[in-house]
Amino acid sequence: MSLRTGRTARAGQYAALLCYLVFLAFPFLWLISTAFKPPRELGSLHPTWIPEAPTLDNFRQAFDEQPLLGAAANSLVTALSAAVIAVVIATPMAYVMARHRGRLSSAATGWVVVSQAFPFVLVIIPLFLVLKNLHLINSLWGLVMVYVVWSLPFALWMLAGYVRAVPPELEEAAAVDGAGKVRILISVTAPLLAPGIVATALFAFITAWNEFFFALVLLKTPEKQTLPVVLTHFLGAEGAADLGPLAAAAFLATLPSLVLFAVIQKRITGGLTAGAVKN
User: For residues 218-232, b (16+ Cβ closer than 10 Å) or e, as one string?
Assistant: First the structure.
């Protein structure tokens, strides 16, 4: 009876997981289907999953109508820069917060919680004024600064958890051998934090790559706009969407995040295994 119950429970878990995967995959699969449909099928009253006459015209039209390559380059620059800077800043801060419990650690934890509670609308006006005084409005580097500040609290909290998982005995042994705090962080702790650093960088990159509101407010000229902002140009003045080209452009915009995650996922798993047996 217990074996049958266990199999039933496992089957129920797999069924629930399958339903969840279908729920997550449905929008993306429908997006792909729409991107390859001709206008006649897009306006059909009986839509189908698989295009009857697949076409690449939506992709050609999307590139002809909007500067997608330039916008993608802007998004890539801002996302990569924000991810690298956030990780470089957060790593030593997370080390201090995890290893030295006290008022600083408590204040940092409170900052993480409070910062995530503020909606974008409440901070956009003072943020705009600060960047205006710094002459960073309509600047990609001004947008990078915003993304770094916005992703830094979560990156700090995430890396602090990885630091706490590193055995303090390794650092104590290095200190006995004469290594200083900086040397210990670089030579001992940082290699073991590689999976956490990669995961944090991935989070910061995807957050910056997909962000829309700050980019819409802070970037004025078309040549500076990022990909999420350019995608809104496929919407007409009355809200009517140019559905085919919009789906094609949105599909291309999701590919970098998917490819990056697929590549880095193996490195995260490998880093965890290597960290577990590191001498």
Answer: bbeeeebbbbbbbbe
What is the CA angle 95-98-104, rounded to 5?
A: 95
Cβ-Cβ contacts under 8 Å for 228 (sequence gap 6 or more): 75, 210, 211, 212, 215, 253
Q: In this predicted model, what pLDDT tens digit does every residue of 179-193 receive, in sequence order?
A: 777 787 777 787 888
Return the structure tokens found at 41: 């099928």
Under DSSP, the state recorded for 224 is G
Q: Please name the residue that has the structure tokens 């890396």.
A: 159
Backbone φ and ψ for 235, nearest 5 degrees, come out as -95, 135
Within 10 angstroms of residue 274's Cβ, the number of other Cβ atoms is 13
Task: Summarize the confidence of residues 118-131 as an average pLDDT.
Answer: 82
Write the CB contacts of 74 (distance below 8 Å, at least 6 apart in sequence).
140, 224, 225, 226, 227
Q: What is the pLDDT of residue 75?
A: 94
What's the whole-number average pLDDT of the chain?
82
Count Cβ atoms below 10 Å from residue 130 Cβ, excluding itself. Answer: 14
